[in-house]
Amino acid sequence: MAFEKLNNMPTSILVIVMFILASSPNLVFSSHNFPIAKRNCNDICGGIPIPFPFGTTSECYISQEFWVTCKHTATSGGPQKLFWWDTNIEITRISLDGQMTLLQSISRDCYNRNGSRSSPSITAWIKLTDYYFTVSNTANKFTIVGCDAYAFVSGERLGRNFTTGCTAMCSSEDDMTEGECTGVGCCQTPIPRDVWKIEVELKSYSNYTYVSDFNRCGYGFVAEESAFKFSKDNLTNLADVESIPMVVDWAIGNSTCQEAQRNATSYACISANSECYKPINSVGYRCRCEDGFEGNPYLAHGCIDIDECATKIGNNCTKNEYCNNTQGGYTCSCPKNYDGDGIGEDGCKLASKEQNMRVAFILIGTASGIIALLLAITLLYMELKRRSQRKTKQRFFLQNGGHVLQEKLARREASPEMVTIFSSSELEKATSNFGNSMIIGRGGFGTVYKGVLADRRIVAIKRSIRVDPTQIEQFINEVVVLSQINHRNVVRLLGCCLETDVPLLVYEFVTNGTLSSHLHNEAKARALDWSMRLKIAAETAGVLSYLHSSASTPIIHRDVKSDNILLDHTFTAKVSDFGASKLVPIDLVQPSTIVQGTFGYLDPEYMQTNQLTEKSDVYSFGVVLLELVTGRRALSFDRPVKEKNLANYFLSVLKQGLLFEIIDENIVGLGNREQIYAVCKLAKECLNVRGEDRPSMKEVAMELEGLILGGKHSWARSIENEEEMETLIGVRSSVGYDSICRDHIAMPNNGGR
Ligand SMILES: *[C@@H]1O[C@H](CO)[C@@H](O)[C@H](O)[C@H]1NC(C)=O
Ligand SMILES: *[C@@H]1O[C@H](CO)[C@@H](O)[C@H](O)[C@H]1NC(C)=O
Ligand SMILES: *[C@@H]1O[C@H](CO)[C@@H](O)[C@H](O)[C@H]1NC(C)=O
Ligand SMILES: *[C@@H]1O[C@H](CO)[C@@H](O)[C@H](O)[C@H]1NC(C)=O
Ligand SMILES: *[C@@H]1O[C@H](CO)[C@@H](O)[C@H](O)[C@H]1NC(C)=O
Ligand SMILES: *[C@@H]1O[C@H](CO)[C@@H](O)[C@H](O)[C@H]1NC(C)=O
Ligand SMILES: *[C@@H]1O[C@H](CO)[C@@H](O)[C@H](O)[C@H]1NC(C)=O
Ligand SMILES: *[C@@H]1O[C@H](CO)[C@@H](O)[C@H](O)[C@H]1NC(C)=O
Q1: Which residues line ligand 8 (CB under 6 A)?
Q2: Which CATH number is correct for 402-508, 3.40.190.10, 3.30.200.20, 3.40.50.720, 3.20.20.70?
């Protein structure tokens, strides 16, 4: 294992190195990709290529000007060297772009300390072929080195003589600056163009006698500028250097391209895809391969197409593109599914359709990812919320005695009267989430919503008051008991929901609103005639009586009032909230709730003793009777103080015999006078301060039933005597009002309707 690892490392390094090598630009263009010389001609000498038009034999050069010879330097097998013609001028480089480099000797002039020449001065010269070869004026510089020297370079150009010169002086070695030929120890000057013959002649001002301790020689040469970099050492070490490179421009003939092209036999640019051009700084013309080709334009078929696609820098195709080499060029083409010409920086783009599809895929992918994520988060959130809601519901359910109710229900046989346990979601659905538009009543008792159950039953849902945790058992008992009251004059408790913080009680929905709303609305009150009122009173009394006497424990309503008596579409009374207030432990009920809900109806005895009995309901019912008779509210704050409390006011009015003053005009009609008296009398009895003195609900109910049937009952009989009745309605006490009273109340007994 370890060995393998060790072994792998160099391999990977090698791979990386190879990759770097492969990807690095291949800057080296091989000059041997194409033939440079004619067939069967020597194209190299001592490592130096010999491109046509140069040649070593007459078959190999274009003309004799381009004759070169390849010779061994020493007689016995020294290295081969290339020479211009059969001279000793050595060629070190020939390039097809019109230059060659020769080695040119250095002129020198040396003296003894006493000022006599130590050796004959050497004057270097070179004579090239006019027009074909000229000393390059761009690549070369005329340079002299020495501290007491001046030199002339002279020669011929364009058929005339020329001379130029330079002076190099110095008095101390320290004067000289490395690399600078500014006349101190070294002087440099350019030469004119088109020079084909040069001669460098050195002179001295004072035979180096003043500088003889460090410099006794002067040197001069025309040389490739880049080949010589001045150093003060050169004052001495140039003595050992015989020659220095010089660049020569070469061109074909002395005619222009146009002139040359006229003579096809002598025109040199014979290769296909070659072209003729005029050299910048010499006469004649040269040839070159057209763009996209390389090779030797002077040879037939010398220019060869460059395979730009073979190297990365050869072409501009982007990495997506397919590079196709063509004659003299290349094309970058886009693979299938790609658009564009491929050339330029844009390169290949995915075909718009393809790209659109990809973009669409990416977008769809991203979008669906996001959607899925959101969905997942939402689902998770909803699940968590659902769980917490379920937990909360469960908590409330237990807190509100749900399990107690369940146990109770389990013990009973299923019956239609059985209380239903509603789920909170069921009721939420029924009431549009307990929306404001579904509220049908609000008060101290809580809020009542109208709801439509899934089975299309219309219900009233009452959100009552929080249950005292210690009284849960009792609360549940009440719910069970109340739900079993199946009386036509009771608003049925259908069930409850215990999953909310405050239990919700679900009642049957009664269409026509409360008795209170009818009595205290002018138009509705007019429609509610005496017989209807009597019927409502009788029904209410009947059901209260029924419940007071029912079962083991009497069910006391506790909150009898016109607000709690509902009317259905046939004006049948339906007592609501039956015992509901008893469901709320009295000590938990805030005083304000009582005052708001029931003040005006409250049994004064109960207020003192805090003992709630059936007789409390009787008292409250008495007030309801007064409401029916007078049309006034049990408590009216907009009336004078003495009239505020209806019960008190009634009793005081009764004492004063002014009863007629408060009888509702709407009920005064034919033949009901006695009934009204009777009801007033009955109400008076009900309002007795002592509970014991009040009749029982049963008696009240029977009395009212009796009145409806027209028969005389004990109570009616007891007010049989006229005297008492007159006392009751104050006929005696106020004569002035008597007629009014009689007009209004004591209508003809049997006038008929
Ligand atoms: C100068 O010096 C050289 C050698 O140092 C000597 O050969 C020569 O004769 C001298 N010439 C004169 C004129 O003194
Ligand atoms: C310099 O040298 C030349 C040749 O050796 C001689 O003719 C000339 O007199 C010398 N001049 C001086 C100042 O030494
Ligand atoms: C150039 O100079 C040489 C000698 O230095 C002379 O023979 C020749 O005639 C001159 N040519 C011209 C054109 O002046
Ligand atoms: C000039 O001197 C420098 C420093 O010694 C040397 O490298 C260089 O070759 C010399 N130049 C020539 C042409 O000999
Ligand atoms: C070109 O060279 C030929 C000889 O090779 C010569 O006769 C002719 O005058 C030259 N033309 C020019 C413009 O120099
Ligand atoms: C064309 O060039 C050839 C060879 O240099 C020569 O012999 C011939 O006379 C020239 N023809 C013309 C029309 O210049
Ligand atoms: C490549 O493109 C650049 C600019 O777009 C251009 O200058 C250069 O010549 C091109 N090279 C090739 C090999 O086409
Ligand atoms: C490359 O280009 C040549 C000529 O331009 C063409 O004939 C050939 O089909 C192309 N090849 C590809 C692969 O495009």
Answers
A1: 324, 326, 333
A2: 3.30.200.20
